[in-house]
Amino acid sequence: MCGIVAYIGQQQATPIIIKGLKRLEYRGYDSTGISLFNGSELHTIKTMGKVSDLVAKFESLPPIAAQIGIGHTRWATHGVPNDVNAHPQKSNTGDLVVVHNGIIENYASLKEELIHRGYTFSSDTDTEVLINLIEDVQKKEKVKLGKAVQIALSQVIGAYAIVVFDRKKPNELIAARLGSPLAIGVGTDEFFVASDATPFLEYTKNVIYLEEEHLAIIRSDRDVSIRKITNDKVIKPYVEELQMSLENIQKGGYDYFMLKEIFEQPQAIRDTLRGRLLSDEGVINLSSLREHENKFLKAKRIIIVACGTSWHAGLVAEYLLEKFTRTPVEVEYASEFRYRDPIIFPDDIIIAISQSGETADTLAAINIAKERGAFVFGICNVVGSSISRLTDTGCYTHAGPEIGVASTKAFTTQITVLSLLALHLGMVKGTLSRSEYQHHLLELESLPVKVTQILEQESLIKDVAATFREASNCIYLGRGYNFPVALEGALKLKEISYIHAEGYPAAEMKHGPIALIDEQMPVVVIATKKGHYDKVVSNIQEIKSRKGRIIAVVSEGDIRVKELSDHCIEIPESLECFTPILATIPLQLLSYYIAVQRGCNVDQPRNLAKSVTVE
Ligand code: F6R
Description:
Helix content: 25-40%
CATH topology of the largest domain: Glutamine Phosphoribosylpyrophosphate, subunit 1, domain 1
Radius of gyration: 25 Å
Strand order of the largest sheet: 3-2-4-1-10-9-11-15
Bound molecules: fructose -6-phosphate
Structural class: alpha/beta
Number of strands: 27
Largest sheet: 8 strands, antiparallel
């Protein structure tokens, strides 16, 4: 949440920062701003709205020639989105500016103290408190900027990724993080700081991912120097080579990233399987599991923690892992798990699932599990993310950058990894026979082709969407493996089209939700052959008798459900456990086209941000 971009070097900072902010808009887009230093003056331009609004503001101003600057795109936490609350935030003298991603939880008491000492505040943000605290430390302790930031941060409770600039030290940026990510791009006599590496992809492939509680002093004429905030320990920077390309983060001819990412799924699933599903040898190879396999085999219980769509992938995993390994699985919202004093035994395995690898609640849940001695396995998409580094081991999904706020390819690739894990463990544990194992591997390999077949129905799904674009409510139903798919379908619809949608296990209808059914209510039913078909057909009949309008996702060649439904979308047959990967695809397209036809910006739905780094 919130995107940070900063530049120091020989090039013009403005275009680099603006382009970078546009790439980070997925992290927040309610207000934005930049501070630039032109050698004598510090200019701060801010606006409510998107980076395009900021660009319009710049166009009305004389150009600012600056080789150093910091920028921000905001997802509001403290204070409504407006020009004043937008970042950068200034200190009282106007010398210091900061951009911040995170929350300063004790900002109220710090603010009170600063007011007592004569400081005034113009915004409602916690960030303005932080920059004045830094200024206060600078004045009181007579220390350099880096040290002042370090001392101020040691008084802060909360989470932050910050970049600070002092116009009295115009060749230096200070960056620090706790709980929110920061990447430093290392060029020749120039440096970039950003919430992820995408803003500097075309300038350098060398990146330092700042670690938790680390502070970096960045000067264009020197190497980056890093120290630990808590104890001054000097850290040797670890420079990694970025594997991402510019093409990965561009729309590539699609109207929205979400559509591009939906269509990338066949390749994303192939990439997830690559090197892990060794079809010639008929085995699964999960190198990260190798030395920890015993822990999984001995575990009495697996607890999955995640949020949102990743939590839905966790629900699918519950079915997969229990079926193939016969180990009990619990799936928890990370945000609940962290605060309910959970019972965790040292021989429990925790699986944390997160696309971004930065979700604050999931990170906190992992910390609790680790404190209590559990082994934590991570499933992340973003390489080098906080969760991937905090967990004991894990697997990347290798889906490539997911930029659309609504998660699509992350979900299907998470289930792909979880399928590999469950099948592999089932095989070594002996709870899955070799022939069943081989049969599942063959089917797993065929999934990308089947996903492509579903995507070929895009125009049919677009037509179905046109029929439902005026709906104000929608119900999604599924049973067994298709229940999490119903939840995921409903989440996709509500988050991008603002239509109220709920997912239920189909049999739960008669315990309440059936009261909602009338001729206005669209009901999306996942009624594939392998998912308790006859039972679901009965549920469809119950809806039909109450005049509900049915959109069904069915297996190829289905006749019975087709007769009962208003609209039908066919998906290829597969083994029951892999149906979620296939059945999700038409629901993603359905939500996408309903949202587009309602005139919604699907990549930037209101009130949302891609990476939820605040709790
Ligand atoms: C929904 C969506 C969110 C995320 C959730 C967790 O489309 O994207 O519900 O799934 O915020 O995010 P990660 O997976 O990054 O931990």
